[in-house]
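User: Run a structure prediction on this.
Assistant: Running it now.
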Amino acid sequence: MLLEREEVNPDRPHKDGRTPLYGAAWNGHEAVVKMLLELKEVKPDNPEHDSRTTPLWGAAYNGHEGVVKMLLERDEVDPDKPHKDGRTPLWAAAWNGHEGVVKMLLELKEVKPDNPEHDSRTPLWGAAYNGHERVVKMLLERDEVNPNKPDNGDETPLFRAAFNGHEGVVKMLLEREEVKPDNPEKDGQMTPLWGAASSGHGRVVKMLLERDEVDPDKPRKDGRTPLRAAAWNGHEGVVKMLLERDEVKPDSPDNDGQTPLWSAAYNGHERVVKLLLERDEVSPDKSHNDGGTPLWNAAHNGHEGVVKLLLERDEVDPDKPVGDKPINGGRTPLWIAAFNGQVGVVKMLLERDGVSPDKPDNEGRTPLWRAASNGHEGVVKMLLERSEVNPDKPDNEGWTPLWAAVAEGHAEVVKMLLELDDVNPDKPDNEGRIPLLFAAMSGHAGVVKILLEQAKVHPDKPTNIAQTALFHATIHGHVGVVKILLERDDVHPDKPTPNTGLTPLSLAALRGHPGVAKFLLEQGEVDPDKPNIDGRTPLLCTAWNGHTEVVKILLEQDDVSPDKPDHDGRTPLSYAAGNGYADVVEILLKRDDVDPSKQDLYGQTPLRLATRHGNTAVLALLRPRDP
């Protein structure tokens, strides 16, 4: 009906250049295609704008044989016209395995059956990649087709078929003399055998190993052999086949020193580990370049079956640490298993006489320390049952296992450790910080409570730089911890730090913690206007940093002087103005007891400070108030 109307343009494209014919061809609507092709206005080979694909390309890609046939009957249609990336209709049909379309196109002399797209991938390459055996067979029957033609990365049709496990395609390609079955690709230097071994395609591996030209132990550029690849991925059948070959070195390390056994142990492939351990050439305790042995890595990842197999070998040192690096060296299999909470592995290792359960790493951190830090209760319990384990042993920073558990908030581990008489709950680290201080700093209220129940804990004990638990709870805004600490008679809510004179309220004001500030002001002993050693009151501290809510809370106190200057003569308004806090300036200007033109010791008024710093919003508030 529409085509009968004169005003209807049958070839009018969509904004992306797709004509009605293109749409019909793409979707395989033969009757519509036929109608449109009968109209002289319709150009049957017009490409769309984006990818430059023609109606024929779309029909070929989607396998619409009837449409392809109609389009090929038109002289104007170029049967080999490529997509913008060089992919022809034949390439598209071959990629998707449309045999009928491929057959039709190959019958045309204009079609070049070996034409590559821009990455040098031919129709054969695409069909081999996707395993379309019949299409591959048709293309291989053409003399012009090079069965060994690589793409830009030197990946041949055989490489791709082998990597993807297409046995039938591999078999066909291997029957061709031109095909080099051991050619590596460019990037990683992987051969077809390497790809098949890595992906676990046993039958393809078998076919390739039957070829004399194939080196079964040929490594990738990183030194990883087909055996190492198969072992890493746990392909037992492939590993078995490769181990039957005399040319294969079963203990050959890659460039990082990782052997096939190391790789299988790392990933927990027990059967592969067992196969490799049956070989005399395989060293079961061989370290990679960073020092980790197969046992160490199996312990790290919690592969209990592999750990058991390795511990049965006399050559394996169950206490061998990783390297001697200052930061992460000296870590034994037990250490790493404890770190990761591998309870079963820890149990097995502790049953061995050669394992030291308290051996520290190079940072002085023992297996117990690490288990405590990460909250692994089961591991902590096992280690504490060993008499050789010192439960209060500090690391190089002076942090004990209790310290480590406290810092991370592991309350149950803290309880376990505190049940032991030889654990000092108040033991300071090298900077004089006690566990309570860190619990307070981190906001672990439950742990704070547990520690305060210990008679030996001094809740107001300062660090080397005079910081207390209350200091840290306040400065970090942990209201719950502040409340718990202030329930103690021996913690003073208004005690200033000797080096700065800042009180807990000043700290809360400085950092902008309204909840903490409010709670402290409810304590009768707190002076809300107490200055520090520089003469700065809590109000001045909070105005300085623009904490509006705390400013409001402090101004509600009768004994707070809103215009009290520090030793430089600067008032809360001066600092708020100079730093551009318009909201705070506005609040302070509403007070009758605030002088907006008050000069500091250097003759600077709030207006002048705001002008100097270019704070336009503040200037708008101050100009009408400054004579």
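DSSP finds 36 helices and no strands in the chain.
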